[in-house]
From TrEMBL:
It comes from Luteitalea pratensis. Keywords: Heme, Iron, Metal-binding, Oxidoreductase. InterPro entries: 6-blade_b-propeller_TolB-like, Cyt_c-like_dom, Cyt_c-like_dom_sf, Glc/Sorbosone_DH, Quinoprot_gluc/sorb_DH_b-prop. Transmembrane segments: none annotated. SUPFAM superfamilies: Cytochrome c, Soluble quinoprotein glucose dehydrogenase. Residues 29-108 form the Cytochrome c domain. This is Soluble aldose sugar dehydrogenase YliI. Pfam families: Cytochrome_CBB3, GSDH.
Length: 475
């Protein structure tokens, strides 16, 4: 059987020509959700849950007419001559047909894996997997929505909790919250996000935090990045690394980002989501819907792609992003990977290159949350394709490459966490392409972040309940 997601060849176009946003839904387009359309046009033959009837099952992974999204879309559009499967091109727009393909993929995936019960805990103590058997061990519990985890050079673990606490876990002991962490805005997606530890932390003690804060206008908020010096259990000498203009603090609480990552050259990358204003992702004058790159003191490197372009935010490294919540560097070649929360059915892993446009919201594999179409375009010249996308969405979050020696058969694999999908995945990546995926953990709670420790073990942050779990070899 084919893998249940599509692996795509990378990037078509180069450059960053200005794009005009297409009308996402023409005024006359019907607003019916895809579930409603399915029930009225398809269910009498393919069954109410897509299990089949007079027509074949659409969830059994058997595809007589081809198993790609494009094949399924073609059958819906053109029908199958000489069978009751009539063409729907007159009844459905291309946008609706794309949404129908997502609907089919979602149903196929839940038929394959079953619907997720609430977190099944405790985690199994020993898990067999394709290449390694491993043990799971709860290192810390009782945390509230742990968001980012990062190691200090002495092997202690820093963990951020979304309500605004930063803690050290040392030798299995969870220390009291670090004092001096700025007040954070805890609404909906908001709060304390990721942590980065400066590559020369041993000399300078610098720790970077991303969080949402409220602005001058009541209820407004945005993402801010600061640097502080960790002294004992206090964060002192804080400086702002990035803060949007006051006018850009908006009255919504979604898509703040914000992952932080130092690359090998000591540049700090940080992601900020589109803040629910999707057109911003295509606007170089807005910091939203972008990946940014700065020096460790917040200055903009002179070789950033949009330095000197009139009106552009100079810290932008890449654009056309929705909400990126995972960043990692491939240890083999320095390539930068980012996971991105797509709309429903459109989660992505991207190989992020300088100055490129990743297409949101012009192209996407997803649809609106309510099952109405967003766009029928999944690719376009000049817009980058994801390395892989997940339909249905798994709510993809933190990632890390395996660089340790304790799991030799996982060398250089990418570990991917997911919230709604409650999973930890292992991806094998060869020459910028995902060649294999494996689910290592599923159904034990939302998984927010993953880090390979200096000890070569794998540390995973679960949300609801808030746990840090350590994976160690059992074979
Ligand atoms: C009147 C019955 C009928 C209706 C209504 C109908 N289908 Fe079909 N459909 C069929 C039959 C029968 C086939 C198998 C055709 C064949 O023999 O290859 C089929 C095939 C398909 C396939 C290809 C399956 C494969 O194995 O490749 C897809 C996808 C599909 N239908 C989707 C839909 C969708 C989506 C709708 C609603 C918009 C729909 N169908 C409405 C009867 C129907």
């Amino acid at each position: 059987m084919r893998p249940f997601l599509s692996v795509l060849v990378l990037g078509v176009g180069l450059g960053a020509a200005p794009y005009v946003l297409p009308p996402l839904q023409s005024a006359s387009a019907p607003r019916a959700s895809v579930a409603t359309i399915y029930a009225s046009l398809c269910a009498n033959c393919h069954g109410p849950t897509l299990q089949g009837g007079q027509g074949p099952s659409l969830v059994d992974a058997e595809w007589k007419h081809g198993d790609t999204d494009a094949d399924i879309a073609r059958v819906i559009r053109e029908g199958v001559a000489g069978t009751p499967m009539l063409p729907f091109r007159a009844a459905l727009t291309d946008l609706q047909i794309r949404a129908m393909v997502i609907h089919v993929r979602e149903a196929q995936e839940s038929a394959r894996l079953g619907t997720l019960p609430p977190a099944a805990l405790p985690l199994p103590a020993r898990i067999e997997s394709e290449r390694h058997a491993f043990r799971t061990e709860v290192l810390a519990d009782g945390l509230e929505t742990p968001w980012g985890i990062e190691f200090l050079p002495d092997g202690a673990l820093l963990v951020s909790e979304r309500p605004g606490r930063l803690r050290i876990i040392r030798e299995g002991q969870v220390l009291p919250p670090i004092s001096g962490v700025p007040a954070v805005w805890v609404e909906q997606d908001g709060g304390l996000f990721d942590i980065a530890v400066h590559p020369r932390f041993a000399e300078n003690g610098w720790v970077y935090l991303a969080f949402s804060e409220t602005g001058a206008e009541t209820g407004s908020s945005s993402t801010r990045i600061i640097r502080g010096t960790l002294r004992g259990n206090a964060l002192v000498d804080q400086v702002t690394i990035f803060r949007p203009a006051p006018a850009l603090y908006w009255n919504n609480n979604s898509h703040f980002g914000a992952r932080l990552l130092f690359d090998r050259d000591g540049y700090l990358f940080f992601s900020i989501g589109d803040r629910g204003h999707m057109a911003d992702a295509q606007d170089l004058a807005s910091p939203y819907g972008k990946l940014h790159r700065v020096h460790d003191d917040g200055r903009v490197p002179s070789d950033n792609p949009f330095v000197g372009r009139a009106g552009a935010v100079a810290s932008i490294w890449s654009y056309g992003h929705r909400n990126q919540q995972g960043l990692a560097i491939d240890p083999r070649n320095g390539d930068l990977y980012a996971t991105e929360h797509g709309p429903r059915g459109g989660d992505e892993l991207n190989l992020v290159r300088k100055g490129r446009n990743y297409g949101w919201p012009i192209i996407t594999y997803g649809m609106n949350d309510n099952g109405t179409p967003l766009t029928d375009r999944t690719e376009q010249d000049g817009l980058e394709q994801p390395v892989v996308y997940w339909t249905p969405s798994i709510a993809v979050s933190g990632i890390d490459f395996y660089t340790g020696s304790r799991f030799p058969r996982w060398a250089n694999d990418l570990f991917v966490t997911a919230l709604a999908g409650q999973q930890l995945r292992r991806l094998e990546i060869r020459d910028g392409r995902v060649t294999h995926q494996e689910l290592l953990l599923r159904g034990s709670g939302r998984v927010r972040d993953v880090r390979v420790g200096p000890d070569g073990l794998i540390y995973v942050a679960f949300n609801g309940p808030g746990l840090i779990v350590r994976l160690s070899p059992a074979d």
